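Dear all,

This email documents one entry for the complex benchmark we are building for the journal club exercise. For each entry we list the sequence lines for every component of the assembly. Then comes the predicted three-dimensional structure of the complex as a token string, followed by one or two observations. Please use this as the template for your own entries, and keep the labels exactly as they appear.
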Amino acid sequence: MSYDALQEVYDAQLLKKMYYYIVLTRSLENKISYICHSQNSKSPMIIGKGYLSTGQEAISVGACLALEDGDWLAPSHRDIGGMMVRGLTLEQIFLQYFCRVTSPTAGRDGNVHLGDTSKHILSFISHMGSIIAAGLGVAAAIQYREEKNVVLACFGDGASSQGVIHESMNYASVFKMPMVFVVNNNRYAISTSTKNQMAIENIAERAAGYGMPGVVVDGNHVTEVYQAVKKAVEAARAGNGPSLIECKTMRMCGHGTHDPANYVPKQELEEWKQKDPMTWFQNELLQSQVMKSDDIKSIQDQIDHEIEEAIEKARLAPVPQGEDLLRER
Amino acid sequence: MYYAEAIRDGMRQAMKADERVYLLGEDVAQMGGIYGVTKGLVDEFGKKRVKNTPLSEIGIIGEAMGASIAGLRPIAELQFSDFITSAFSILVDVVAPYRFRMGTKTPFILRAPIGGGLHIGPYHSKCPEAWFFHVPGLKIVMPSTPADAKGLLQSSIDDDDPVLYFEHKKLYYELKEDVPEGIHRVPLGKALVRHEGNDVTIVTYSAMVHLALKAAQELEKEKISVEVLDLRSLVPLDEEALLNSVSKTHRVVFLHEAPIRGGVGAELESIVCEKIFHELKAPPKRVAAKMTPVPVAPNLEDFYLPSLQDVKNAIHSLFQ
């Protein structure tokens, strides 16, 4: 895309924001992966494993940038990028991974099982897609008070097999709720490929069964995700009900940092490596001269610094004591 | 006022007093719900505040939870408590641990009719309280009278935690008493001695309170003085009232309509044995339903449910 073409649709600030959050997510998760693999298992910094969105950062970032202040997010486990767009800080994320008492869950839960109600982020829970049921209620409250906000409900291809997703999409559509469903189809639910997960090619086809629009977009193109979600958010905000957007991508890592993902054919990974969302977008920005290579470097330096700073702060935070378990929150 | 009317009046008062309170559930609007408990409320408050939902327990409980996070005070109705299982995970995994994990309160009520005696079988008669008694983060309210039903409902609405409010369907239109007008509160976690006695305590809740009272009356003729303790709520549990009563009578029977194994009675019995074993003059007894699904045929259901004779037999055994 030429500079003019990109500029026609987006302003440079937004493009830079997209890039910043994609690099931030990639760098944060690389760091988490590094810590998981290098830390002393007898006195680990990270309790448990890392659950990363490597190779699919553009979906969460692009979708969440399409939201406005006051909107809500019901996240999946691969939405740390979007959560940061919505205001979750690096320090909160490391506190959560380190299970410190000042973490969003006070050390009672770990890694990506977090949210922040004050920032309108519901908490992901391990039962895939289940938090979306609560998203229905947030949307109902928005309608009840005749407000103009929207709930972005994110889930994966694996979760799409769950009953809660069917009930939620039907329920939201019956009430024309201000919701946007974004399914992140990364081709694998742990080791189960989408071929063994569903008998259709596109999850978006299911939208027809709920009487809502369904579209498929390239999840590795942040601008495409942004555009589709923006349109759906505007429709939802205008009272036209929910939509389903399927973002095609590839999980370029294991399910968690413990999973070498040997079940993924090497060739498949190689193919998708060529479509890396960060590299693609970087090239777009460079070619269209929205950014220069100096900018790329300074953004990376800034992010690396932010990450180190957040880790240092989180490391100094106290761990919970046993009796904190019974403290009322 | 009948039990069902008292619940309706409680909802009406709460809705009049607080804009944040609204009702949702299957067929709750024009039809007034399967048992007519919400009848007429849609005329008074409109469809926005008395909201019919699709047949989706996940949707209903999910909506109630999310709306409570967003600042409302929803009252959700399930047609039968049996159908909670269709959204078990939402309740147990999403709702119950949310405040513990996130520090975010989810103040809503889930109303659901429980209980047998109407010959409607395995899927419309359960008493599922023991499943949730085991789950940290949920409150459980089990009203036994119209006035309590109204008062406990308001306290459940006021409460900052999710409350399972289990109504006994057999009481809906059988039980009538004067109910205080306007807003009426009965605090959660405060048991009530429904009948004073000195020789044995029946610890019970919900519809079984009335069976216990009947037993108390009959045993009076035999000069056995029975105390009936109505727990009113299981979470929070009024442990003090339980221990006080048993310390006074020195004998105890735990009575509930749910099946005996792993029932609430087992936990209550443990509490008594652990804390005041020395006060007991006889081993504690449990009277509860048989370990089968709830059957339809009247004779089968009568045999399934705890009977007056079961309660009397249990009490007699404590004096042998």
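Observations: Residues 3-17 of chain B form the longest helix (15 residues). The domain at 3-168 of chain B is CATH 3.40.50.970 (Rossmann fold).
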